[in-house]
TrEMBL record:
Leader sequence residues: none
Organism of this sequence: Streptomyces tateyamensis
Pfam short name (any one): DDE_5
Domain Transposase IS701-like DDE: start-end pairs: 7-215
Stored SUPFAM superfamilies: Ribonuclease H-like (SSF53098)
Protein name per UniProt: IS701 family transposase
Length: 412
């Protein structure tokens, strides 16, 4: 909190931002301005809502502080920047960026809001360091709709790979270094993103579809056709890193691809040792690297799923109930900050205070429990609980009456 305090000119928002971030880490059944304000001991949610909506502070500046904080404490010369998107299912049509679209969260097409995140993944831990909201054409083609949600009416449509390029460029332009980028097929299939990374001298291991075409010395082939041509000796059993059930072993092969541009290009293929299922990756490195390095980078992509799971489960990343863009960017930035704090504490504890052999190392979940129980637990009396019960019922009664009035006034 001291690190970002300078972003707030008044003491009141500085104090409230601390309460909000602690509330994001608290063990609340739902995390929004109402529940966090009640937990923090405030009389109404007005102050929290003002902080997210109308208060004067720059969420992008806090994002930059967060990025510096994560890199400083989780620094790794071989860190991987992982790009991926996640969606939040929403109701209605007024929440910024919402439309019917596919989201992996639901596993199907839903009315949802999708954002692209950049995760810093190193040996000491991982945390999100940047975010961009995906604004579909159904919004950018309607300036009035953008204006109503707090977006610039001239907001231009940007694809998810373009948003990823924007965040990676921001990371590198800030003076930070990461030799590798990883991502799924959405990003690996985009030649502009690959070219942008090569121009910056940044290596990548990006998944591509089975029908992705590559040029070899023998001509142009689909990735799955090339895989069938590989001899048995081309495959190596290697681990993509440790998972919940031990090392994740696969069979791997790679094919050098000729290219007029500098650097080294490969098509890498992963084969499941049980099912035989294949996955394909476009790879680039400024200098020659062994297959084990490419496999390690490919395995780092799973860290983004762990980041999403922890960010949503521990820090309320997906529980925002806001409609405007400024409120969304502030909420997710603070949720990212809350999770980053847990990741940094975990990394420091593992390094400086390793536990006994009969205990697993401290997890982010356990650190959050201890923090709230021992440091930040709020105890409020019956009067406070009753006041909030009355406030909620009064607010809901007004909302109900307003809804009935609009319904009655609507044409038959």
């Amino acid at each position: 909190m001291g690190r970002i305090a300078g972003r707030f000119t008044r003491v009141e928002p500085r104090r409230r931002i601390r309460s909000l971030v602690l509330g994001l880490l608290a063990d609340l059944p739902r995390k929004n301005c109402w529940t966090i304000a009640e937990w923090a001991g405030e009389a109404t949610p007005d102050g929290m809502q003002h902080l997210l909506n109308r208060a004067k502070w720059d969420a992008d500046a806090v994002r930059d502080d967060l990025r510096d904080y994560v890199v400083e404490h989780l620094h790794d010369d071989q860190a991987v920047l992982v790009v991926d998107e996640t969606g939040d299912v929403k109701k209605g049509s007024h929440t910024v960026g919402v439309q019917r679209q596919y989201t992996g969260t639901a596993g199907r097409i839903e009315n949802s809001q999708v954002a692209v995140y950049l995760v810093y993944a190193g040996r000491r831990g991982h945390a999100a360091v940047d975010r961009e909201l995906y604004i579909p054409r159904s919004w950018t083609d309607k300036p009035d709709r953008c204006r109503a949600a707090g977006l610039d009416p001239d907001t231009a449509f940007a694809t998810k790979p373009e948003l990823a390029t924007r965040m990676i460029t921001r990371f590198l332009d800030a003076g930070h270094r990461s030799p590798w980028v990883a991502g799924d097929e959405v990003y690996g299939g985009n030649p502009k993103l690959r070219t942008a990374l090569e121009e910056r001298g940044t290596g990548y291991v990006l998944a591509v579809a089975c029908n992705h075409e590559v040029t070899t010395r023998a001509g142009k082939f689909r990735a799955d056709i090339l895989a069938k041509k590989l001899p048995k000796r081309a495959w190596q059993k290697l681990s993509a890193g440790a998972g919940a059930k031990g090392q994740r072993f696969y069979d791997w092969a790679h094919i050098a691809l000729p290219d007029t541009a500098p650097g080294h290009h490969h098509l890498m293929i992963r084969r499941n040792r049980t099912t035989g299922e294949l996955a394909y990756y476009r790879c680039y490195s400024p200098q020659p690297v062994p297959l084990t390095t490419l496999v390690r980078v490919a395995g780092s992509r799973w860290r983004v799923e762990e980041t999403f799971q922890a960010g949503k489960g521990l820090a309320g990343l997906d529980e925002h109930q806001v409609r405007r863009y400024a409120s969304w960017s502030r909420w997710v930035t603070l949720a990212m900050l809350a999770h980053a704090f847990l990741a940094v504490v975990r990394a420091d504890e593992h390094t400086h205070q390793p536990g006994p052999d009969d205990l697993i190392p401290l997890t982010c979940n356990e650190i959050a429990r201890l923090l709230i129980a021992l440091v930040a637990e709020r105890a409020h009396g019956t009067a406070h609980r009753l006041r909030w019960s009355h406030w909620r019922r009064r607010h809901q009664a007004r909302s109900q009456a307003s809804h009935y009035q609009r319904q009655a006034a609507a044409p038959a």
